[in-house]
Amino acid sequence: MPRSSAPQDFADRPPWTRPVFIASAALVLIVVIAGVLVAVSSRDSDDGTGSGTTSAPSPSSAPTETTTPHTLPTAAPAGVRWDLVGQTAVPVSASAGPTRVAGGKAAGYAHTPEGALIAAAQLSTRAGYSAGRQSWEPTIEQQFEPGADRDRLLATLREVGDAPAQPGELSQIAGFSYQSYTPETAVIGLALRAPSAGTPRYHVLSLTLRWRDGDWRMVAPPGGAWTSINRQTSELTGIVEWGAR
Protein backbone atom coordinates (compact mmCIF):
# COMPACT_ATOMS: atom_id res chain seq x y z
CA MET A 1 0.00 0.00 0.00
CA PRO A 2 1.59 3.36 -1.05
CA ARG A 3 2.53 5.70 1.76
CA SER A 4 3.25 9.40 1.72
CA SER A 5 6.62 10.46 3.10
CA ALA A 6 5.50 14.02 3.82
CA PRO A 7 5.49 15.07 7.49
CA GLN A 8 2.09 14.70 9.11
CA ASP A 9 0.43 16.49 12.01
CA PHE A 10 -1.58 14.03 14.11
CA ALA A 11 -2.75 16.49 16.78
CA ASP A 12 -6.36 16.41 15.66
CA ARG A 13 -6.62 12.84 14.48
CA PRO A 14 -8.26 9.86 16.20
CA PRO A 15 -6.14 6.81 17.08
CA TRP A 16 -7.11 4.84 13.98
CA THR A 17 -5.91 7.63 11.61
CA ARG A 18 -2.30 7.50 12.73
CA PRO A 19 0.47 6.73 10.20
CA VAL A 20 -1.03 3.44 9.05
CA PHE A 21 -4.14 5.07 7.65
CA ILE A 22 -2.53 8.35 6.52
CA ALA A 23 -0.21 6.11 4.54
CA SER A 24 -3.05 4.95 2.29
CA ALA A 25 -3.00 6.44 -1.22
CA ALA A 26 -6.74 6.59 -1.53
CA LEU A 27 -8.85 6.88 1.62
CA VAL A 28 -12.57 6.48 1.26
CA LEU A 29 -14.37 9.29 3.07
CA ILE A 30 -17.96 8.20 2.62
CA VAL A 31 -20.09 7.39 5.65
CA VAL A 32 -21.31 3.83 5.86
CA ILE A 33 -24.19 3.95 8.27
CA ALA A 34 -25.97 0.64 8.33
CA GLY A 35 -29.40 1.82 9.41
CA VAL A 36 -31.56 -1.23 9.83
CA LEU A 37 -35.27 -0.77 10.43
CA VAL A 38 -36.43 -3.31 12.95
CA ALA A 39 -40.10 -4.25 13.03
CA VAL A 40 -41.42 -4.55 16.52
CA SER A 41 -44.50 -6.61 17.06
CA SER A 42 -44.37 -7.16 20.79
CA ARG A 43 -46.77 -5.44 23.18
CA ASP A 44 -46.19 -4.27 26.70
CA SER A 45 -46.82 -7.16 29.07
CA ASP A 46 -48.25 -7.13 32.54
CA ASP A 47 -44.81 -7.32 34.14
CA GLY A 48 -43.97 -3.76 33.05
CA THR A 49 -41.43 -4.49 30.28
CA GLY A 50 -42.85 -1.59 28.30
CA SER A 51 -41.88 1.03 30.87
CA GLY A 52 -39.69 3.97 29.89
CA THR A 53 -36.73 2.92 32.04
CA THR A 54 -34.23 0.10 31.56
CA SER A 55 -31.53 -1.48 33.65
CA ALA A 56 -28.36 -3.21 32.46
CA PRO A 57 -28.79 -6.99 32.67
CA SER A 58 -25.94 -9.18 33.80
CA PRO A 59 -23.59 -10.62 31.14
CA SER A 60 -25.24 -14.03 31.49
CA SER A 61 -28.75 -12.72 30.79
CA ALA A 62 -30.53 -14.15 27.75
CA PRO A 63 -31.94 -11.64 25.23
CA THR A 64 -35.52 -10.62 25.96
CA GLU A 65 -38.13 -8.36 24.44
CA THR A 66 -36.51 -5.46 26.31
CA THR A 67 -33.67 -5.54 23.76
CA THR A 68 -35.93 -4.18 21.01
CA PRO A 69 -35.23 -0.66 19.64
CA HIS A 70 -38.13 1.11 21.44
CA THR A 71 -36.44 0.37 24.78
CA LEU A 72 -32.85 1.24 23.83
CA PRO A 73 -31.02 3.32 26.46
CA THR A 74 -31.27 7.06 25.95
CA ALA A 75 -28.77 7.97 28.68
CA ALA A 76 -25.18 7.02 29.44
CA PRO A 77 -24.87 3.63 31.19
CA ALA A 78 -24.60 3.83 34.95
CA GLY A 79 -21.87 2.19 36.99
CA VAL A 80 -19.13 2.54 34.36
CA ARG A 81 -15.49 3.11 35.20
CA TRP A 82 -12.87 4.17 32.67
CA ASP A 83 -9.55 2.36 32.27
CA LEU A 84 -6.67 3.29 30.00
CA VAL A 85 -5.64 1.29 26.96
CA GLY A 86 -2.46 3.06 26.03
CA GLN A 87 -3.57 6.70 26.21
CA THR A 88 -7.24 6.10 25.41
CA ALA A 89 -9.88 5.70 28.14
CA VAL A 90 -12.25 2.75 27.65
CA PRO A 91 -15.40 1.82 29.61
CA VAL A 92 -15.75 -1.16 31.95
CA SER A 93 -19.11 -2.18 33.45
CA ALA A 94 -19.82 -4.76 36.15
CA SER A 95 -23.12 -5.61 34.45
CA ALA A 96 -22.25 -5.21 30.74
CA GLY A 97 -18.59 -6.29 30.59
CA PRO A 98 -15.93 -7.01 29.77
CA THR A 99 -15.54 -9.87 32.23
CA ARG A 100 -12.13 -11.03 30.96
CA VAL A 101 -9.17 -8.77 30.22
CA ALA A 102 -5.93 -10.58 29.37
CA GLY A 103 -3.39 -10.89 26.59
CA GLY A 104 -4.29 -7.54 25.06
CA LYS A 105 -7.95 -8.56 24.67
CA ALA A 106 -11.13 -7.66 26.52
CA ALA A 107 -13.99 -10.17 26.18
CA GLY A 108 -17.19 -11.29 27.88
CA TYR A 109 -19.93 -8.75 27.09
CA ALA A 110 -23.59 -8.86 28.02
CA HIS A 111 -26.05 -9.80 25.28
CA THR A 112 -27.78 -6.43 25.67
CA PRO A 113 -27.62 -2.98 24.06
CA GLU A 114 -25.28 -1.85 26.87
CA GLY A 115 -23.05 -4.86 26.27
CA ALA A 116 -22.84 -4.05 22.56
CA LEU A 117 -21.97 -0.43 23.36
CA ILE A 118 -19.16 -1.36 25.77
CA ALA A 119 -17.86 -3.91 23.24
CA ALA A 120 -17.86 -1.30 20.46
CA ALA A 121 -15.76 1.07 22.56
CA GLN A 122 -13.37 -1.61 23.81
CA LEU A 123 -12.81 -3.48 20.55
CA SER A 124 -12.41 -0.41 18.32
CA THR A 125 -9.86 1.07 20.73
CA ARG A 126 -7.92 -2.15 21.20
CA ALA A 127 -7.87 -2.69 17.44
CA GLY A 128 -6.30 0.73 16.89
CA TYR A 129 -2.68 1.17 15.88
CA SER A 130 -1.86 3.20 18.98
CA ALA A 131 -2.91 0.35 21.30
CA GLY A 132 0.21 -1.55 20.25
CA ARG A 133 0.65 -4.83 18.40
CA GLN A 134 0.22 -6.81 21.61
CA SER A 135 -3.36 -5.50 21.65
CA TRP A 136 -4.52 -4.94 18.07
CA GLU A 137 -3.23 -8.23 16.69
CA PRO A 138 -5.05 -10.65 19.04
CA THR A 139 -8.13 -8.40 19.14
CA ILE A 140 -8.52 -8.32 15.37
CA GLU A 141 -7.54 -11.96 14.86
CA GLN A 142 -9.86 -13.37 17.52
CA GLN A 143 -12.64 -10.82 18.08
CA PHE A 144 -13.37 -9.56 14.56
CA GLU A 145 -15.55 -11.37 12.05
CA PRO A 146 -13.34 -13.32 9.59
CA GLY A 147 -13.21 -11.94 6.06
CA ALA A 148 -11.24 -10.02 3.47
CA ASP A 149 -11.75 -6.67 5.23
CA ARG A 150 -10.38 -8.06 8.50
CA ASP A 151 -7.38 -9.54 6.69
CA ARG A 152 -6.72 -6.24 4.91
CA LEU A 153 -6.83 -4.36 8.23
CA LEU A 154 -4.36 -6.78 9.78
CA ALA A 155 -2.04 -6.69 6.78
CA THR A 156 -1.98 -2.87 6.76
CA LEU A 157 -1.15 -2.66 10.45
CA ARG A 158 1.63 -5.23 10.09
CA GLU A 159 3.27 -3.24 7.32
CA VAL A 160 3.89 -0.22 9.53
CA GLY A 161 6.68 0.03 12.10
CA ASP A 162 6.20 1.15 15.69
CA ALA A 163 5.33 4.81 16.23
CA PRO A 164 3.92 5.34 19.74
CA ALA A 165 1.39 8.12 20.27
CA GLN A 166 2.51 11.27 22.03
CA PRO A 167 0.63 12.64 25.06
CA GLY A 168 -2.54 14.48 24.05
CA GLU A 169 -2.36 13.23 20.47
CA LEU A 170 -5.27 10.79 20.48
CA SER A 171 -9.01 11.38 20.31
CA GLN A 172 -11.13 10.23 23.26
CA ILE A 173 -14.63 8.73 23.44
CA ALA A 174 -17.20 11.51 23.74
CA GLY A 175 -20.59 9.92 23.07
CA PHE A 176 -22.69 7.31 21.31
CA SER A 177 -25.91 6.62 19.44
CA TYR A 178 -27.70 3.37 18.64
CA GLN A 179 -28.14 3.42 14.87
CA SER A 180 -29.87 0.03 14.98
CA TYR A 181 -30.08 -2.94 17.32
CA THR A 182 -31.28 -6.53 17.28
CA PRO A 183 -30.02 -9.39 19.48
CA GLU A 184 -27.97 -10.55 16.48
CA THR A 185 -26.55 -7.28 15.11
CA ALA A 186 -25.85 -3.87 16.61
CA VAL A 187 -24.79 -0.74 14.73
CA ILE A 188 -23.44 1.92 17.06
CA GLY A 189 -22.24 5.41 16.29
CA LEU A 190 -19.23 6.00 18.55
CA ALA A 191 -18.23 9.66 18.79
CA LEU A 192 -14.59 10.58 19.42
CA ARG A 193 -13.49 14.08 20.31
CA ALA A 194 -10.41 15.21 18.42
CA PRO A 195 -7.85 17.05 20.58
CA SER A 196 -7.97 20.69 19.51
CA ALA A 197 -7.77 24.04 21.22
CA GLY A 198 -10.44 25.69 19.08
CA THR A 199 -13.95 24.65 18.06
CA PRO A 200 -14.65 21.06 19.16
CA ARG A 201 -14.34 18.53 16.39
CA TYR A 202 -15.66 14.98 16.47
CA HIS A 203 -15.28 11.79 14.50
CA VAL A 204 -18.31 9.49 14.53
CA LEU A 205 -17.54 5.87 13.66
CA SER A 206 -20.43 3.68 12.52
CA LEU A 207 -19.43 0.38 14.15
CA THR A 208 -21.16 -2.93 13.40
CA LEU A 209 -21.08 -5.81 15.88
CA ARG A 210 -22.54 -9.30 15.62
CA TRP A 211 -23.37 -11.80 18.36
CA ARG A 212 -21.29 -14.92 17.68
CA ASP A 213 -20.29 -17.82 19.93
CA GLY A 214 -21.60 -16.17 23.08
CA ASP A 215 -20.01 -12.74 22.66
CA TRP A 216 -20.06 -9.56 20.56
CA ARG A 217 -17.67 -9.55 17.57
CA MET A 218 -16.63 -6.52 15.55
CA VAL A 219 -17.14 -6.32 11.78
CA ALA A 220 -14.02 -4.86 10.13
CA PRO A 221 -14.54 -1.62 8.18
CA PRO A 222 -14.84 -1.88 4.38
CA GLY A 223 -11.44 -2.21 2.78
CA GLY A 224 -9.87 -2.48 6.24
CA ALA A 225 -9.94 1.35 6.55
CA TRP A 226 -11.60 3.02 9.54
CA THR A 227 -11.98 6.19 7.46
CA SER A 228 -14.61 4.37 5.37
CA ILE A 229 -17.05 4.41 8.32
CA ASN A 230 -16.15 7.83 9.69
CA ARG A 231 -17.90 11.16 9.48
CA GLN A 232 -16.65 14.42 10.94
CA THR A 233 -18.81 16.94 12.74
CA SER A 234 -18.50 19.97 15.00
CA GLU A 235 -21.49 19.10 17.19
CA LEU A 236 -23.06 16.11 18.92
CA THR A 237 -26.64 16.45 17.72
CA GLY A 238 -28.40 13.12 18.26
CA ILE A 239 -25.46 11.78 20.28
CA VAL A 240 -25.63 10.85 23.98
CA GLU A 241 -22.60 12.42 25.63
CA TRP A 242 -20.45 9.79 27.32
CA GLY A 243 -16.81 9.53 28.26
CA ALA A 244 -14.16 9.71 30.94
CA ARG A 245 -14.28 12.80 33.16
Question: Would you give an account of this structure?
Answer:
The protein is an alpha+beta fold. It has one domain (15-35, 63-70, 87-241). It has helices spanning 19-22, 113-126, 133-143, 148-159; strands spanning 80-85, 88-93, 100-102, 105-107, 172-181, 185-194, 201-212, 215-218, 230-233, 240-241. Strands 5, 6, 7, 8, 9 and 10 form a six-stranded antiparallel β-sheet that branches. Strands 1-2 form a two-stranded antiparallel sheet. Strands 3-4 form a two-stranded antiparallel sheet. The longest helix is centred in the middle third of the chain and has 14 residues, at 113-126.
Show the helix and strand layout.
Elements: H1 19-22, E1 80-85, E2 88-93, E3 100-102, E4 105-107, H2 113-126, H3 133-143, H4 148-159, E5 172-181, E6 185-194, E7 201-212, E8 215-218, E9 230-233, E10 240-241
Antiparallel strand pairs: 1-2, 3-4, 5-6, 5-10, 6-7, 7-8, 7-9
